[in-house]
Amino acid sequence: MLAFQAVLWYNKAMENKTNFVTSNTEMMTISRAEYDADKAYIAELEQQVRWRMEQMKLLKRKQFGSSSEKASDAIQKQHVALQDQRRCSTPHRAV
User: Fold this and answer.
1) Nearest-angstrom CA–CA distance, 45 and 56
2) For residues 35 and 37, what is the distance between their CA atoms, to the nearest angstrom?
3) In the predicted model, is pLDDT for residue 82 greater than 60?
4) Which residue of 3, 44, 47, 55 shows the fewest CB atoms closer than 10 Å?
5) The pLDDT of residue 18
6) Which of 15-24, 69-78, 84-93 has the lowest mean pLDDT?
7) CB 68 within 8 A of CB 62
8) What is the sign of the dihedral through the CA atoms of 16, 17, 18 and 20?
9) Within 13 Å of residue 63, how many CA atoms lie on the same side as its CB?
């Protein structure tokens, strides 16, 4: 009976170990210099992403902002000048 309990205990212990072994964790070692270089490269890429996202925000504001719906000052001035020119060149009728 004692031998049978030992076998059961052994099987139970092996089942627990099998559960730990089934996880597929791979480990790789690299040098400190390579790690630091990779870390610096990632930081540079993150900085580029932040800069590009900021540029996109600025371009969207420029394209879709409220000022994009208004005519520029030069166009407005040309429009006013054209209206003034038409008023001056049209003869007035005497009433």
Assistant:
1) 16
2) 5
3) yes
4) 3
5) 46
6) 15-24
7) yes
8) positive
9) 6
Amino acid at the residue 75: I
9, amino acid identity: W
DSSP state of 22: T
* Closest to 32 (Cα-Cα) out of 40, 21, 24: 40
Q: Which among 64, 91, 74, 51 is positioned nearest to 43, based on CA atoms?
A: 51
d(CA 87, CA 69): 28
What pTM value is reported for the model? Answer: 0.42
When pLDDT is averaged across residues 66-77 and rounded to a whole number, the result is 65
Contact 31, 37 (CB under 8 A): no
Report angle CA 69, 75, 76 to the nearest 5 degrees.
Answer: 80
